[in-house]
C-alpha cells in the first residue's frame, strides 16, 4: 500500500512532506515520489507517497489523511512548530478540544500530529493512514483481503488494521456522516509484489468487490478501480 496525493505544485508539496517525514524524494514523469532513505519495496515498514501534479484545486475535506506519531509532549510541540516553519497551518475540521493537533499542508491537505500513544510507538513518522467511510466493517473486509493485512480491532464506528508482518503504519477506517462528492484528492494505491501477474491481481480485487470508476484508462500504465464505497485507488504495475 502507498498514498497518492494530487497537487497543483507536486515539487513544492514533495519538498514539504520529505522534510516533514525525514524522507528522500525523487522527481518522476508524473510528479514526486517519497520514501525513507534506503527503502526497498515490498518492505511494509513504511507507506510511501506519490505526489501527482494536477491542476484542479482542493474543494472539500479529504476523505483520506495521515496521522503523524510523536513520542512525548515535547516531541509533539516541537514537531508542530517545525511543520509550521515548513508551511503547514492550523486546520479546523470540527475537532473541538482534543489532545492532537489538526493541520493542513501547503496545499490544504489535512493531517494530524498525534499526542504520544503506545499503539503508535515504532510505526515510523506516519502513525496511521485514516480513511473516512460509512461502514468500517465492510471496508476492513475489503481492504484486509486486498492488501493482506491483519485486523486488530473493529466496531461499528472504526476498524484498525496493520500489515500482516505487524510493522509500519496502521490503516484505520472511521465512520463519518459525510458522503463522498468528488474524486478523492488523496487516495490509497495497491502495489503488487514483484513477479505478480497484474491481470490476475485485478481479477482478484474485482472478486473482492472492486469496480470500474467509469473513466478512460487507455493511456495509463496502471489500473484505476474503486472500492465498495466508491473510493478510487490505483493498482500499480509490479516494481
Automatic annotation (TrEMBL):
Q: Which domain of life is it from?
A: Bacteria
Which SUPFAM superfamilies does UniProt cross-reference here?
Glyoxalase/Bleomycin resistance protein/Dihydroxybiphenyl dioxygenase
Instruction: Give the signal peptide range.
Output: none
Domain Glyoxalase-like, first and last residues per copy: 3-114, 128-236
Q: Pfam families, per this entry?
A: Glyoxalase_6 (PF18029)
Q: What is this protein called?
A: Glyoxalase-like domain-containing protein
Source organism of this protein record: Planotetraspora thailandica
Taxonomic lineage from the root: Bacteria, Bacillati, Actinomycetota, Actinomycetes, Streptosporangiales
